[in-house]
Amino acid sequence: MKLGRKTGLVLEGGGMRGVFTSGVLDAFMKHELNFPYVVAVSAGACNGLSYMSRQPRRARYSNIDMLRKYGYISLKSLLTQGSIFDPNILYERFPKEIVPFDEETYRNNSTVFEVVATNCLTGRAEYLTEKHDMARLTAIVKASSSLPYVAQVTEVTLPAAGSGRPVSVPMLDGGIVDSIPVVRAVDMGYTPNVVIMTRNRGYRSAEPDIKVPRFVYTDYPRLRVALSHRVEVYNEQLALVERMEDWGEAIVIRPERPLEVDRICRDTRKLEALYEEGFRLGEAFCCQYHL
User: Fold this and answer.
1) Average pLDDT over residues 134-163
2) pLDDT (tens digit per residue) in 266-288
3) 3-class DSSP state of 237
4) Enclosing H/E stretch for 76
5) pLDDT per residue over 30-65, tens digit each?
């Protein structure tokens, strides 16, 4: 399989498992490997921002060094700010003060960067892009990364139909409905696609789907329906990616063995090991394709 001008890049989410993705992307930046189209979800979107702004090791710093220094995953944050991942540190201090986001490089990057979020009103995926309004870009990525039950709903502005005014729409984690947006990449005309996964091949979630009760997300009945089928949809996507890989329609970079890192892992030693595995496999990919 060859990489070409219509090869897309798909970034899965997975909370702190996304440190694997940050390692792969750092290897890509080292070898100056760029794609015309990137579609990312949740943690993949956060890591994808640093890839789009060409800032190597920035995502690694946020996933490991900042976690060690600030301990931004905590019950205290959930109780005081409505999110188990401290939103003030991650979406205010980090991009503006700690390791400032290179807005100019991001704006000038010709790559189309789409982020997946779940529309709470429709229960469907929204594929969002923003190259100019940095506040809206932050809201989009924050929404995509807002895990259900342990993060607040994020309002994102959408263009109104026709000549009406833009509307503010409540959104949550894109992984609820499209954890691995490879179909979106194909629909946008990109094939084959390089897919960075955060689970080993053969993994399937054994967690049962449970109907979400009415008292949860009371104002969003369609979101409840989507949440009630989340595991089923994810397992179907995992199987689809494996079939596409076998058929030569996708090149998949994934961890080689079952992970010891979960969505809210706070063990920085495990995170460092997963980052290094991602970087090593990213390097191997670039060498294999002579990049």
Assistant:
1) 92
2) 999 999 999 999 999 999 999 98
3) helix
4) helix 75-81
5) 999 999 999 999 999 999 999 999 999 999 999 999
Element housing 262 (H / E): none
Q: Look up residue 15 and give its DSSP letter.
A: G
Q: Which residues pair with 196 in a beta bridge?
A: 11, 253
Bridge-based pairing of strands 37-41 and 8-11 is: parallel
Q: How far apart are the first and last CA of the chain?
A: 14
- Band (5; pLDDT cuts 50, 70, 90): confident
Q: Which helix (H) or strand (E) holds 181?
A: none
The pair of three-digit structure tokens given for residue 286, joined into one six-digit string: 């670039």
Q: What are phi and psi of 244, to 5 degrees?
A: -60, -40
Tell me the residue length of the chain. 291
- Answer whether 276's CB lies under 8 Å from 232's CB: no
Return the half-sphere exposure (C-beta side, CA atoms, 13 A cut-off) of residue 167.
10
Tokens linked to 66: 């900042």
What count of other Cβ atoms lies within 10 Å of the Cβ of residue 119?
Answer: 23
> What is the rounded CA–CA span in Å between residue 46 and residue 25?
12
pTM for the full model?
0.96
CA pair distance 129, 282, nearest whole angstrom: 26
131: which 2 tokens? 């190259």
Q: What is the mean pLDDT of the chain?
A: 95
Provide the total of helices (H) and of strands (E) in the chain, helices listed first.
12, 8
The answer to whether 173 touches 42, Cβ cutoff 8 Å, is yes
Instruction: Select from 52, 54, 46 the least CA-distant residue to 18.
Output: 46
